[in-house]
Amino acid sequence: MAISSARLKGTVNPRGLITSVRFQYGTTTNYGLITASQNFSGTTTQNVSANVSGLAASTTYHFRIVATNIRGTTYGSDRTFTTRSSGGR
Question: How far apart are CA 8 and CA 35, in angstroms?
């Protein structure tokens, strides 16, 4: 089975608080995998991305962004992507 990688993208607005951001991802909406946390601060919407690897070819993955600060945790909407077939470039 071929292995693929992907770049997950989202946005966060820390609203003036130090905010830890990560992505949950997996083949179902139970996710099961997480990226390393990244810290953000400021009062504007900022782009967030994370590279993931070791993904199975021709497979649909679910992911969502997760932001945590002293006010609690916020979950983004579920999104999906499909990795290329093992013969794809």
Answer: 10
- pLDDT tens digit sequence for 37-50: 999 999 999 999 99
Considering only CA atoms, which of 5, 15, 85 is closest in space to residue 44?
15
CB 40 within 8 A of CB 15: no
How far is CA 18 from its chain centroid?
Answer: 19
**Total-model pTM:** 0.90
Q: What is the DSSP string of the chain?
A: --EEEEEEEEEE--TTS-EEEEEEEESSTT--EEPPPEEE-SSS-EEEEEEEEEEETT-EEEEEEEEEETTEEEEPPPEEEEPPPTT--
Contact 61, 81 (CB under 8 A): yes
